[in-house]
Amino acid sequence: MKRRVLIVDDEPGLRKGLGNVLELRDFIVLEAAGGAEALEVLRREDIDLALLDVKLGGEDGLEVLCRLKAEEPRLPVIMITAYGNIRNAVECLKAGAINYINKPIDGELLVSLIEKEMASSALALENLSLRESLEDHVQREGVRSLHPAMQELEFIVQRVKDSPATVLILGESGTGKEVMARGIHYSGRYREHPFVGVNCAALNDNLLESELFGHEKGSFTGAVARKLGRFEMAGEGTLFLDEVGDMSLAMQAKLLRVLQERSFERVGGTKSIRSRCRVIAASNKKLEDLLASGAFREDLYYRLSLVVMRLPPLRERPKDVELLIELFIRQANREYGRSVRGVSQQLLQRLKAYSWPGNLRQLKNVIANAIILSRGQTIEHIELLEPPGLPHPVDGRTAGAGDGGIGEEGLRGFVGRHVERLERQAIARVLADSRRNLAEAARRLKISRKTLYEKIRLYGL
What we know:
Helicase, Ruva Protein, domain 3, 461 residues, 5-stranded parallel beta sheet, 18 strands, Rossmann fold, 4 domains, alpha/beta
């Protein structure tokens, strides 16, 4: 998604010049000549960062800064001025600016600064949101596992939450490895610092190296500016390396060096940068088998496995299924504005007996889908448990008379009901994704708002 930058300056030429530089780097640029116009744009558009001149003709840029921050407290603002001095810089930072740059402005420097500040602000916002979410979860949910292995893991979390020791979390896909890593991070002293994750299986070696360690401008084709890596972005927080078992041996060697020496260099750089973060790694593979086959370094394994946590699959935790269903129903009710009370006893027994190959992730998605599509306060049936690709069961009203097949009218009825079901699912999902913003939902569905109202009434959404 393109990022949106608001330039607030009373000089049209400067706005145009900076705008051209940023648009070449794939930013969307919006302009304002003064405070009132800037506030109007801020209320109308989603702005990722603002560039604000300290001198705006007859206006005081610091006063405008305060008004912008009052309107949108989390908006990152970089101050620009030809009258730069230490006093101005201190006043700007005290008022909420994240940085300060003098005219004449170097385009490359500005773009690099914006990239850095946007990344930092996005990370801070994500961690604030996650911290608030976790606090809310702990205070309001209070769910505890009944499985002995999970209770032992809760004990380990309390032991390692404040420790710099590396932690290795093992378990099948969907068992909650990242949730466990976040739980460790946000339950201890590291919660005041960033939690930064990277999926090691999703990137090839070159991209993963740049993602982890960053790169310098010009270090390879396409490196148009310096980029901070995840080790730097994590600061004194936690770096979560997901699917570390998918790393190539070459990348394993580079990771081992960082863990041993606690320092690294950006790609194309020579300056040694100190690593201060705690590392938590995870894998859905059996690393012991990879060790035996030579696909995973033994020395790296011992570096990562100072503390090992093995998450059992959901099929081994049938007593937890009911607790998790209650938790996921509460979460989905809040997220989607529903008031479902639970599932029927018959369905509960089916859910507890199901093998859950996708583990917690599958159960959570199944419950969320059922909440979105529910017509009453009790869920009686969850169709996602049926084998994919099979048609819905056809009741007696659909079958043709006499031969048990689908007659002409029965076929029309079957197709009609099938289309209605798909339409209801599509509308329900778009309503959920748009947080029931009807104008946005109608736009996504490419129907009028009036038609959307009618469909909502028709399907009881």
